[in-house]
Specification:
This protein has helices spanning 6-16, 20-29, 34-44, 49-52, 81-84, 87-103, 118-129, 175-191, 203-219, 227-242, 257-262, and strands at residues 59-67, 70-78, 112-113, 116-117, 134-142, 147-155, 158-168, 248-249, 252-256, 269-277. The protein has eleven helices and ten strands. A three-stranded antiparallel beta sheet has the order 1-2-5. α1 packs across α2. Helices cover 44% and strands 24% of the residues. It is α+β, with helices and mostly antiparallel strands and 281 residues long. It is elongated. A hairpin with a 2-residue loop joins β8 (248-249) and β9 (252-256). The chain has three domains: 6-52, Ubiquitin-associated (UBA) domain (Helicase, Ruva Protein, domain 3, Orthogonal Bundle); 59-195 and 251-277, Tetrahydropterin Synthase, Chain A, CATH 3.30.479.20; 202-242, GTP Cyclohydrolase I, Chain A, domain 1 (Orthogonal Bundle), CATH 1.10.286.
């Protein structure tokens, strides 16, 4: 293998704006030929990547795929919604989502894809589209006996909110169970719960909220002896905002998600869910 000097790597980096490791690999792939290495970087869409590195990729799109016992959600970020709703970007996102569904999400950037790796593919996409492109959040559910469903909220011709949900204690082939699972996925997209039940809320978070509510209640001038009851009532309101099962169902505010599940039988439960929204952590 041709010996690649640090001087050659630095020279290529100065010419192309690509990262040091990318420049080193380009020179290795081209036998140390500087011009050929420049072409290699351009072909891979890597040249100029450093110039885009400082930009904010806070736009993008989300894709959701559910296929039997596997569900995948992939967020791909870019700089503008114009690029995010384009056919090239959407095709790339679709392909990556199918890859995650088929092969998993462990070390995704290093997975073989399109003649290289996922990381190289995304860099090439960045070069093609002229914007900073980067993988965002990736979620994959797999189940042997649960019911998986998903929901993608589309706005301005791109998915901006994606949800995956798994129900347990139901027959995955039951039409009513599938309908409820989809309704719950839609509800999660809208109501943005953070936990399945109040039991899942970390104790320290509950205590912080309790302390805030106690302070607020004292500021309101409520009698000291009434504080515990008032605070517990307010804490119940807090749980309704963060715990999925206690939230009023978006399609019928008179019932809760827990009551909706009860209609599927006493064993029905939400095992887990994931919600991703473009622009939110």
């Amino acid at each position: 293998m041709t010996e690649i000097s640090a001087k050659d790597v630095a020279a290529l980096r100065k010419l192309t704006g690509a990262g040091m490791m990318d420049c080193k690999r380009a020179l290795e792939e081209t036998g140390g030929d500087l011009e050929a290495a420049k072409t290699w970087l351009r072909e891979k869409g890597i040249a100029g990547a450093a110039k885009r590195a400082g930009r904010e990729a806070d736009e993008g799109a989300i894709e959701v795929l559910v296929d039997g016992g596997v569900a995948a959600l992939v967020e791909l970020n870019c700089e503008t919604d114009f690029v995010a709703k384009g056919d090239v970007f959407k095709k790339a996102l679709d392909g990556l989502t199918r890859l995650v569904a088929a092969e998993g999400d462990d070390d995704l950037a290093a997975k073989p894809y399109e003649g290289g790796t996922v990381d190289e593919f995304v860099k090439g996409l960045s070069g093609t589209l002229g914007e900073k492109i980067q993988l965002g959040r990736v979620v994959r559910f797999e189940t042997a006996d649960g019911l998986l469903d998903g929901y993608k909220h589309v706005q301005n011709e791109r998915g901006v909110v994606g949800v995956l949900v798994e129900l347990g204690g139901v027959d995955p082939s039951d039409a009513r169970a599938r309908e409820v699972a989809h309704d719950i996925a839609l509800h999660i997209a809208s109501a943005a719960p953070r936990y399945v039940s109040r039991a899942d809320v970390p104790a320290d978070e509950v205590e912080r909220e309790r302390a805030v509510l106690e302070a607020q209640t004292r500021e309101e001038g409520k009698p000291e002896q009434a504080l515990p009851k008032i605070v517990e009532g307010k804490l119940n309101g807090f749980f309704k905002t963060v715990a999925l099962l206690e939230q009023p169902f978006v399609k019928d505010q008179k019932t809760t998600v827990a009551k909706l599940l009860e209609g599927l039988g006493g064993q029905a439960t939400v095992r887990r869910f994931a919600r991703v929204k473009i622009g939110e952590e």
